[in-house]
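Work through what follows:
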Amino acid sequence: MTIERDALTDIRDRYDALVRREARPDSAEARVERAGGVVRHVMPGAGWNGIIWSDLDEETADAEIAAQVAFFTERGASEFEWKLYGHDRPADLGERLRAAGLVPDAAETLMVARTDDLARLSVEPPDGITVRPVTDEAGLDLMMAVHDRAFEADRPTHLREQVLAMLREEPDSIAAVVAMAGDTPVCAARVEMRPGTEFAGLWGGGTDPRWRGRGVYRHLVSHRARLAAARSVPYLQVDASDESRPILERLGFEVLGVTVPYMWRG
């Protein structure tokens, strides 16, 4: 069912408020803090560090960027990500980040759907495919094996530790699954359902190149939608690649905007 434009704007505002401005840390070791005009995620060791939300203008942006570069440099972080959204201000924030030494990675499309709409779709698995929940390190190894083939060098190095920490510390906030062809993992994905956010984030969705185009990814989207519907989470959210976007649009996802990860590497 199509979401009206005014409703999409309201959903985007709620996403900004609940997922970005009021973000929660990925693990017990991490922290989320408001510093000046930004909300940042700080993680020791090899975990994810980044700027989740910002409230800047032409007068404050450059100084705030410099402050965050200095902060993560002093912590000895090897890298951090400034997750820029197309509606963030000032309008030239991306150019300012680039001038400060941050490098943009591939843009992704921020997409959303009503959970109940997706959960009602009947998307059957391809012949020979079964879905296995990831609940332990053995299942996590299967997930990482798929992601290594699907994403190659683009898989975040901290992903295994992040998912393992959530499975151990917040098992009700995450559901990870692997699509199996017999004993071979061919697609893996997860859904994160943070309490109070109203949004279930669909992440991963990596498919072995030999299995693309057969409907495995579609089935895992539908499967995760049903998991989120069982928790009464109203919306599904995806940062979609160019490959995933057409599939998601056919399933009923709507575009909220574009997000670009700007990376600083010390």
